[in-house]
Amino acid sequence: MTDANEGSDVSRRDYLKVAGAGTIGVTGLAGCMGGGGDSEGTTTDSGSDETTESSDGDSDSTTEEDSNYETLEVQHWWTGGDGAKAAEALFAGFEEAHPDIEVNQNPVAGGGGQNLKTVIKKRVLNNNPPSTWQAWPGAHLQPFVEADKLKDIGDSVWSKNGMKDAYLEGPKDAAKPDGKFVTVPINIHRLNNLFYNKKVVEEAGVDPSSIEKPSDLTAAMKKVEENTDAVGMANQTKSAWSTAQLWAQVLLGEHGTETYRAFTEGKVEANKEAVKNSLSIVKEYTEYFNDDAGSISWTEANKKVINGEAAFFHQGDWAAGMYRGQDGFEFESEWGQVPFPGTQGVYALNMDSFPMPKNNPSPEAAKKFLQYVGSVDAQERFNPKKGSIPPRTDVPKDKFGPFLSRQMDDFANSDVQVKSIQHGLAIPPGAKSNFGDAMSTFTSGWNVDKTYKQLKQAFN
Amino acid sequence: MQRLRDVLRRLSPRRGADSGDRELRADGSEQTDRLRGSSELRSDGGVATAEETPTETGRWQSLLSSDFVQSIPFWLPPFLLMGFFVYGAIGWNLVISLTDFEGLLLPEYTVSEFDLEMYRRALSDPSFWTAAQNTLVLLVAFTAVCLLFGLLLAILVDQEIRFENTLRTIYLLPMSLSFVVTAKFWAWMYNPQIGMINVTLRQLGLDFLTLQWISNPDTKLAAVIFALIWQFSGYAMVVYLAGLRAIPTAHYEAAKVDGASTAKMYWRVILPQLRASTMSAAVVLMVFALKAFDFLYVMFGNNPGPAADILATMMFREAFGSNNWAYGSAIAIVLFGMALAVVAPYLYSEYRRGEL
After folding, report:
1. Taking the CB of residue A327, how many other CB atoms lie within 10 A of it?
2. Are A383 and A187 in contact (CB under 8 A)?
3. Are residues A214 and A329 in the same domain?
4. How large is the angle between the packed helices B179-189 and B196-203, nearest 10 degrees?
5. How many Å lie between the alpha carbon of A295 and the closest alpha carbon of chain B?
6. A299 touches chain B (CB under 8 A)
7. What is the CA radius of gyration of chain A?
8. Which one, A20, A55, A111, A343, has least CB within 10 Å?
9. Dihedrals φ, ψ of A79, to 5°?
10. B68 contacts in chain A (CB < 8 Å)
11. Residues A399 and A280 placed together within one structural domain of the fold
12. CATH code for the structural domain at B121-352
C-alpha cells in the first residue's frame, strides 16, 4: 500500500513541477504575443463584430449620398430616468428624419458614464469606435484629439443648419478642444445654480436673490438655522464630486471668471489666495450641511430640500428634475433657483455631445446623425425631457416649462459661458482625476492647506 | 509568534502519536483508509497493463498509454485556457507596466525601452503609499479579527447547542450576499442621523459614541473593515467548525482527565490542531481583503479619499479615470505581488507537507 501510494505521489508531484514550469512558459509566451501582436484581433465587444463586418464592404461606396447607409451605432449612458426618455425622443426624431438609416443604440449603463468611458477608450484604442457616442466635450476629448482619433467636422456638420450662428461662443469653444470642430453638443446643464426651498427661506427671512457673494451665503445660512429647524444647505460628501462642483462655483462667484479660467489652465500657484480663500468658504459652509452628508447620495440630499429640512442646495439643474417629479412641489411657489451668488450673467456649462471618430464604421450615417443632433428639431425633442436647455439659442421655448425657459433666457443673455471642471469640460482627464483626489482629501477632513497642495500638483 | 512556535515544537511529538491513535481508534478514518486502498487497487491495475506493453510493442505505445498522455484530454484544455487567459493576461499586464502607455495611442512595445519608471513613480507617489498602507491595514486587521471572531463562534456553536444548524446558517448567510448589497446597506446603517448604529447607540444612552462613521477619516477605514468582518467571519466559523469536528472527542476527554481548565485545553490541545484550518481560512480571507474594491466602489465611488483608498481603487482610477494605463498596470502588478506573497507560503507549506 505504502509503495503504491508513494509512487503515485511522486509522479503527481512531478506533474506539479512540470505544470509550474509550463505555466511560467505560457505566461512568458502570452506576454510576448500580447506585446508583439496587433491589437485588432483582441476585441470582442458585443456589437463590434457586426460593425466591422458591415464596414468592410461599404467603405469604398460611401461617396454616394443616397446609397444605402451602414448601421449607425450610437453608444450612450442614458439608460434610466430622464435620460432614457430624452434619448428615446431623440432617436424617434432621427428615425422620422432619416427612415433609411438603421440605428443600433448600444447603451452602457452606470457609474455616471464611467462604464461607457471605459468601453469607448478600449474601442478607440483598438481603432474600432462606434459611429458616435455620448461624450463630454471640451478638455475631456483632448486625449482623443491628441491621439488623432477624431475627425474635423467644421465643414461637413457645423456649416449646416446655421449651427455656427445658433451656438454661443462657450459651447462652440467646447466643441473645439484643439481649434477644430470635432463634436456636436446636444444639451446644457447649468452648474451655477443655487436652489432653495421657498417656505424655509421665507420663514427665515432670507432673500436668496440679494446674496451677492459666496461668502455672504454663510450669513444667510446662519440666519436659516437660527430661525427655522432646517439646515442651511443640503449636500452629500460621501463622494467628492458635489463638493468639487460647489467649490468651483464659489471660486467663480467670489473671484470671477478670469480666476476660474486661470485655474482651469493650471495656474494654481498664481492664484493661491483665491483658491485657498474659496476652499475656506466651502469649509465654512460645512457647518451648515446636514449631519448625514457623509453617508447619503445627492438625491437623498435633494429630498431634504423637498421636505423642507434644508434651505439651500447647490447642484446642476438636473436636480430640478426631481422637483418636477414631485407632486405639490412647484417652481416659484415651493422652490426657487437663483444663479449661484456672484455668478450673475455667467452660465457654467455641463454638456453632453456626440463626437465624430476617425475610422468610422458608418461615416455617412454618422454625419447625418450629427447634423440632426445640431438641429432645432433634435434639441427641442431631447432637452425638455432631459431637463436641460438646448445649446442652440433659436429653439422655441413652448415645450420647456417655466424653469427651463428662464434658464434659456439666462443662457441667451449670458455675458460669458464657462466650462465645468468637475465634469471634464475644462480640464483634461489626467488633471481631472488628480483634482478629484484633491477634493476627496478635502471632503475627508476639510484641510485647506493640504487640499491646496494637492490642487497645485494636479496639473503636473 | 515565537511563543506559538515553541508551543508547536513542544506539541510535535505528541502530534505524531495523535495521528497514530487516530487511525487505530476512529472508525470513520479507518473506513476511508479502506476506501483509499480499493481505489489504489484500481490504479495499480492500470499501471500493471502499462508495464506489460513495452515488452511487446515498444516505447511509443508505452508513451501513448502512459498516465501522462492518457490524461491529456482532461487537464490540457483547462491548462491552456487558464494559462492564456489568466496567466497570459497577467504577463501582458506586466509588459504594459514596463512601457509608458498613456492616453489613447497604443504603446510601442520596444523591448529596449522597457523600464521600471512606473514603479519608481509609484514609490515617489504619496497617494500610492497611503493606498498601500490602507491595503495592509485592511489585510491584517480584517483577517486577524475575522479569524478570531470565527474561531470564537465555531467553539460556541460546537458545544452541541440547540438549533445549531440554524445558527450556523445565520452566521454564514452574510457571505452569500454580494459586496454591492452589503456596501449599500452598511452605508445606510452608518448614516449618522437615521442609521441603525447611531440610533441604537442613542437608545442605549451612548450618545458620545455616535460618530460620522464613514465620513470621519479617523473611523472610515475601521468602519469598512468592520462591515467586511461582519460579512466574512461566518466563513471563518465554518472552516473552524469543520476543523473542530475533525478533532476526536478523546482529546477533549484526555485533557479533562489530566485536569486542564477549559481555556488551557483549547489553548494547548485544540488550537494547535487547527493550524490547517487557520492557514486555509486566512489565505481566502486575505485574498478577499485585496479584492475589497467592489465594496469601496459602491460605498464611495471611484475615490474613497485618502482615509480608505486601497491599491485596487487607486489602480482603477489611474487606468480608467486618468488614462495612465502603464501606471495602473504597475499598481496592479504590486497588488498581484501581494496576493502572491499571501498564497505562495501557503502553497509551499502544503507542498512540503506532501498535501499538494
Report:
1. 5
2. yes
3. yes
4. 40
5. 5
6. no
7. 26
8. A20
9. -110, -5
10. 15
11. no
12. 1.10.3720.10
Kindly state whether residue A318 falls inside one of the protein's structural domains: yes
- Residue numbers of A between 178 and 207 with CB closer than 8 Å to B: none
Residues of chain A contacting B125 with CB distance shorter than 8 Å: none
Q: Do B195 and A433 touch (CB under 8 A)?
A: no
Task: Supply the range of the domain harboring residue A231.
Answer: 193-348+421-458
Count of alpha carbons within 13 Å of B98, Cβ hemisphere only? 17
Please report the number of interchain residue pairs, chain A to chain B, with beta-carbon separation below 8 angstroms: 157
Instruction: Please tell me the distance from the alpha carbon of residue A123 to that of residue A432, in angstroms, as a whole number.
Output: 22
pTM, to two decimals: 0.77
Q: Which residue of B has its CA nearest to A111?
A: B301
Put simply, whether A432 touches B (Cβ < 8 Å) is yes
Given an 8 Å threshold on Cβ–Cβ distance, is B104 in contact with A147? yes
Residue A59 lies in a domain: no
Q: Find cell 500657484 and name the residue.
A: A269
Determine the residue type at B356.
L
